[in-house]
Design goal:
Layout lengths: L7 H13 L37 E3 L14 E5 L6 E3 L10 E2 L5 E6 L6 E7 L8 E3 L8 E7 L4 E9 L2 E10 L1
Parallel strand pairs: 4-10
Antiparallel strand pairs: 1-2, 2-3, 3-5, 5-8, 6-9, 7-8, 9-10
Length: 176
């Protein structure tokens, strides 16, 4: 019996394809794209990372909320002055402390006035790009709100969230 050898050039893509097919389910559902195709990254940013006016995330304990199973624990957040809107910055807890571009987007947790509709927008500050895409399901009755946020490119991005009469804006660098 003869065993077929897999050329080395095909081996790595086959392994990667099998690994990406075995994703685990997450606790917070993130909307997925249907028929729309997100554009790929644009060429290198027109300003360097060190000139992007990145907002420093704060190490804070979020408010208690019935929608969150565990008691509040300290983490990195962007928070407006009157503490009415909070945005998680979970990537700051990683060793790299880097937010990376991904076609799958990122999950972001928010705290906003209970029951208020959350509107999330964003625009790239350092070059041309389609606007940020964000999905936050409606009707969360408590302060907590989950969302999926999709950066169409890497670069310097300003995110603005509005809920009721409140607003939070912050700037992040997204690695291409």
């Amino acid at each position: 019996m003869r065993i077929l050898a897999i050329p080395r050039l095909l081996f790595v893509p086959l392994v990667l394809a099998s690994l990406t097919a075995c994703r685990t389910a997450s606790a917070v559902p993130v909307p997925t794209a249907t028929a729309a195709v997100r554009p790929g990254p644009t060429p290198t940013a027109t300003i360097a990372r060190d000139t992007c006016p990145v907002t420093e995330a704060e190490w804070l304990k979020p408010p208690e909320d019935a929608a969150v199973n565990d008691p509040p624990a300290f983490g990195y957040y962007y928070v407006n002055d009157d503490l009415t809107i909070w945005a998680s910055a979970g990537w700051m807890s990683t060793e790299e402390k880097v937010l990376r571009y991904s076609e799958e987007g990122i999950k972001m947790g928010w705290f906003r006035p209970a029951g208020a509709e959350l509107e999330i927008t964003g625009r790239r500050l350092d070059g041309q790009a389609p606007p940020l895409e964000a999905h936050a399901s409606c009707c969360y009755p408590t302060r907590f709100q989950a969302s999926g946020v999709y950066f169409p490119t890497g670069g310097c991005w300003k995110i603005t969230a509005r809920a009721a009469e409140n607003e939070l804006s912050f700037v992040v660098w997204v690695e291409p």
